[in-house]
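Milestone 3.1: sequence recovery, worked example.
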């Protein structure tokens, strides 16, 4: 696979988030992506919630629209039936096309997650 470099010479990163029955936590985690210093990322969320997907809340849809408006691809996917966290993470990896991935849990505390210097360190 050819490395996908941004216009700034950085490797592109897919942020992968598994979720299940935690819409508030998911919205809070997604909100942390808005202020990232590294802009070369896309988002893939895989949901195994019972009933309505966790990403169907107004807050999560608004954050997804904002991320898309800023140029990030956002994929909000269902992954059913439930087969455990290992399968959920493999499902997310199978969806990714980026040379770098960052797994986040749906309840990660707000913080800066992607720093340009960390991504730059992966470019040979």
């Amino acid at each position: 696979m050819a490395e996908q470099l941004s216009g700034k010479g950085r490797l592109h990163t897919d942020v992968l988030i598994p979720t299940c029955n935690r819409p508030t936590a998911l919205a809070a985690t997604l909100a942390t992506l808005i202020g990232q210093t590294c802009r070369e990322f896309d988002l893939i969320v895989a949901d195994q919630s019972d009933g309505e997907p966790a990403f169907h809340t107004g807050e999560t849809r608004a954050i997804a629209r904002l991320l898309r408006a800023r140029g990030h691809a956002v994929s909000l996917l269902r992954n059913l039936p439930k087969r455990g966290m290992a399968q959920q993470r493999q499902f997310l990896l199978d969806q990714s096309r980026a040379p770098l991935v960052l797994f986040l849990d749906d309840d990660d505390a707000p913080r800066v997650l992607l720093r340009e210097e960390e991504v730059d360190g992966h470019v040979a």
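The beta strands are 13-19, 41-47, 74-78, 100-103. The radius of gyration is 14 Å.
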